[in-house]
Amino acid sequence: MDKQLQDFNQLTSDTAEYLRSVHGFSTWTIGHYKGGWRIIKEYMVARDISHYRPSIGKKILSARFNNRSIRDLSSTEKQVYNSIVRLSEFQANGKIDLHPLIERRQFHFSGQLGKAISAFIDHKTVNERLSLVRIWGYQRHLHTFFKYCQNHGVRSLSKVDLTFILQFIRQLGSWKGYPIYQMISMLRGFIKYTYDQNLLKVDLSQRIPKYRSVIQAKLPSTYSKEEICRLINSIDRSSSIGKRDYAIILLAARLGLRASDVSRLRFENIDWKASQIKIVQAKTGKELMLPLLADVGNAIINYIRFGRPRSEEGQIFLTERPPYGHFPTSNVVTHIVQRAFRRSGIDTRDRRFGPHALRHSLGFRMLQESTILPVISEVLGHESSESTRYYLRIDLQSMQQCILAVQPVKDGFYMQKGGVFYE
């Protein structure tokens, strides 16, 4: 098994180096990929698989995402999907072709304007070490501007003024789905470059308006009271890990604690005599005091007494394998909740299924029970009730209670003298 893990570790190391050196992936992005590769390693170890093959990746994707289209996956799920697919591609071919269409589609620039655009892209490539994907993005967007100039008889930079640029930007608004903010950013950079190179006498880049891309937040994912009970009851508490996971999920589902606060929970945060939990929230830095519900407290005690490894760590929840220590990131809590959802058999299609979904579900149920906003804000640790209003968008039942009955109007009202309908 050690040799097996050495081979797999070497494969992931080689893949990471290829993504870094050839495609210019950042350390941050590769770190997300490694999270997906850890899922593969756990799958192989659990099934005593000696060597990784692309077929293993397909099985993991099928089991994890239920054959959903990549368009239906969340951003986190897409990272896992891409990490597995690209590891399989590298293992099979020794290389990774991120965007086959990039190599096929070429953009041609000509004339004085085209040469300036090409020089700008070369400048960005050399000085910022742009990846192939970023270079293609600059080519694509600036070629759109180049074609617009050609179609309007503009062949040189001397004819490019602020009015012309604004007219170009204005017509972009009619292109459904076009990333206007990217175009404006790259165009502003190009115009600034031409001024720095004395190709334009006036720096027009400062006068190009900024484009604010407003993305409507998605409705939060929620689960019914019955689904939450099913999730909690599905956890096998006979093992040490089960006792830990049970306590963690209760903290998220019954008290609405964030994953960051669960992972950092320490012994001194619990006042057993007063039956309270007192923490400083990792996200807001604000103090939060919550009642230690009986089932939550009993679950924590059960884990501490019969499941928690002996350790001097101040955090209550520890990793499941030696050397036992605190959770390195809050992602561990997220994975615990997601794993429990999968094992419970609850239908999570089109819904997120992490700790935040449990938090949203708690807020939703409190609204359904007519709990006032300040109380919900206090329980969820929001800085103000304005943050809590986010939950109102999903409480259709409560909104229906706000509908006012329309009083009937006598026919004479419409025929009165001076009225709109009076003839």
Please write out the topology.
Layout lengths: L1 H20 L5 H20 L7 H12 L9 H19 L6 H5 L6 H18 L3 H20 L10 H11 L7 H17 L28 H9 L6 H15 L4 H5 L6 E2 L4 E5 L6 E5 L2 H13 L24 H14 L10 H14 L4 H8 L4 H4 L7 H5 L10 H5 L8
Antiparallel strand pairs: 1-2, 2-3
Keywords:
mainly alpha, 3 domains, 423 residues, 19 helices, globular, hpI Integrase, Chain A
Strand order of the largest sheet: 1-2-3
* Distance linking N and C termini: 93 Å
- Inertia-based shape: globular
Mind telling me the CATH superfamily name of the largest domain? Intergrase catalytic core
User: Might you state the CATH topology name of the largest domain?
Assistant: hpI Integrase, Chain A
Examine the secondary-structure arrangement and name the CATH architecture of the largest domain: Orthogonal Bundle
Count the beta strands. Answer: 3
Helix content, binned percent: 55-70%
Give Rg in angstroms: 29 Å
Major β-sheet profile: 3 strands, antiparallel
Poorly predicted spans: none
Secondary-structure class: mainly alpha
Overall average pLDDT: 83
The H/E string reads HHHHHHHHHHHHEEEHHHHHHH
Give the number of helices: 19
Overall tally of structural domains: 3
Return the CATH class of the largest domain. Answer: Mainly Alpha
